[in-house]
Design the sequence.
């Protein structure tokens, strides 16, 4: 029987590849002294205006770096969308062998161990490199325990205690796994919509530049919109009976991408930009010939390893870019990260924890 799900497995892998490249390039570029900083946890209109000035300049050779610094973090909502999409297809479709869905504790343990298997090798390598290079960060025992317990996001000022910084994502995913299994699993769509609206209201009531907004966006409140969209897309969105041309998908991508940019200039529209990013990403993979997606599909298969290992090579190569050889350091960073991600993925695949 033909699979009429919104996204095929190959397209999901391509989206993972696009998302991880955005994240790893963002996490490098936004450390450069001249880069326009992102609005990820808080909203600063001045940052959007700085980006608009850079785009208006046009000919600046550093424009790609500025775009990656500002927009690259939107790979995170794409990952959240895909996570919910995959969970729903895995656990809510009828099983051919009649297997029962796992109990709550079994589900939580399974996904905790999955995340832990990703974290351990990356963290060990990062700590080693951190102490062998200039400027190591301190590792308080309580922060390390919270990181491995995946509750560091709940500590006061999580941005100060989670190191390496990108590992905040593990705590976020653990929270969303719990939310899914306890509140959303096989429940009416209104539960998902209601929770999305409630999380939006919490953020809308915060000050755009305030610490409260930053705190809630480090936790599931900030990720509920793309996660809920992925769940609903898996349940209810199907491919149309009549094939949609690649041109129409490309046109939709262009329109939604324009809305992403426009949404970055107002606090209340910015709260909905992650949803627009997910829609744009889906339109993009639908508009591209399959053979062109092959590199992204391959990168998607090692995206887990790339996520945990890229902070290591950022620490090694970013001094090259900070000395002025921006693209030299960036190229070495990308080549080395991709190569070692493939190697690390082999290790992670053998670390089966049951």
Sequence:
């Amino acid at each position: 029987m033909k699979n009429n799900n919104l996204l095929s497995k190959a397209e999901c892998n391509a989206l993972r590849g696009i998302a991880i490249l955005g994240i790893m390039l963002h996490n490098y570029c936004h450390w450069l002294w001249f880069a326009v900083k992102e609005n990820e946890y808080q909203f600063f209109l001045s940052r959007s205006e700085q980006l608009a000035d850079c785009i208006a300049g046009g000919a600046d050779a550093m424009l790609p770096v500025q775009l990656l610094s500002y927009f690259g973090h939107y790979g995170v909502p794409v990952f959240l969308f895909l996570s919910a999409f995959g969970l729903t297809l895995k656990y809510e479709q009828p099983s051919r062998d009649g297997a029962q869905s796992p109990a709550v504790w079994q589900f939580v343990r399974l996904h905790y161990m999955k995340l832990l298997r990703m974290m351990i090798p990356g963290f060990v390598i990062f700590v080693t490199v951190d102490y062998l290079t200039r400027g190591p960060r301190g590792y308080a025992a309580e922060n390390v325990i919270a990181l491995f317990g995946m509750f560091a996001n709940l500590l006061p000022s999580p941005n100060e205690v989670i190191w390496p910084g990108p590992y905040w994502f593990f705590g976020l995913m653990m929270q969303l796994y719990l939310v899914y299994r306890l509140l959303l699993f096989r429940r009416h769509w209104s539960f998902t919509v209601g929770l999305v609206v409630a999380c939006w209201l919490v953020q809308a009531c915060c000050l755009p530049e305030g610490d409260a907004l930053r705190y809630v966006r480090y936790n599931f409140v900030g990720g509920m919109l793309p996660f809920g969209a992925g769940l609903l897309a898996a349940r209810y969105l199907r491919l149309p009976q009549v094939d949609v041309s690649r041109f129409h998908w490309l046109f939709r991508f262009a329109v939604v991408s324009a809305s992403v940019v426009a949404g970055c200039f107002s606090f209340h529209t910015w709260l909905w930009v992650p949803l627009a990013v997910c829609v744009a990403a889906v339109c993009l993979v639908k508009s591209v010939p399959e053979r062109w997606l092959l590199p992204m599909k391959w990168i998607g298969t090692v995206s887990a390893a790339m996520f945990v290992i890229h902070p290591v090579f950022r620490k090694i190569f970013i001094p090259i870019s900070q000395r002025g050889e921006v693209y030299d350091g960036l190229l070495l960073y990308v080549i080395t990260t991709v190569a070692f991600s493939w190697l690390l993925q082999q290790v992670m695949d053998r670390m089966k924890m049951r």
Remarks:
- The CA atoms of residues 54 and 60 lie 7 Å apart.
- The two ends are 33 Å apart (CA to CA).
- The chain has 17 helices and no strands.
- The chain has a mean pLDDT of 92.
